[in-house]
TrEMBL record:
Name of the protein this chain belongs to: NIBAN protein
Domain Niban 1/2/3 stretches: 9-154
InterPro entries: Niban-like (IPR026088), Niban_1/2/3_dom (IPR059060)
Family (UniProt): Belongs to the Niban family.
Pfam families (UniProt xref): Niban2
Amino acid sequence: ASVSEPAQKCCTENIQPFLTSILEELMGPVSSGFTEVRVLFDKEVNEIIQDFQKTNDMTRLKENVDQLMTLPFNSVKMEPCYLKVNLLQELLQDLKSRFKVYHIDFVIQRTQNFMQELMENAVYTFEQLFSPSHQADSAKVATTIEKVKLRVLK
């Protein structure tokens, strides 16, 4: 009871007025990281479409879709997404000194984990909605892939 009132006053005066600007500042790198995940997924699926249009090979299409499933675990391809979030390191340094925010690396790591999880969900959903083995008409495969990609990105 004796701590509650001074703690509320401290939060109201010293923290709450800054929360909106802090969140806006932090959301820049987070949003750009998640946008990069979306761009990467889009790019990879477009490459699958282009490859299929050139080869019209259903076996190769299945291999490419299987390879897409490993995308969330491909650190080289996911690296640009993760780098966007590394900007939080600089932004959080200021918060660390002003508000005693600790475990900056944990915040960045959790954000990157969420990015990987988002990519896992995207490729899983893509696989569920599009199965090359169920495609009877190879002329419509590229169109179907594009529709599924757009559905996943939605």
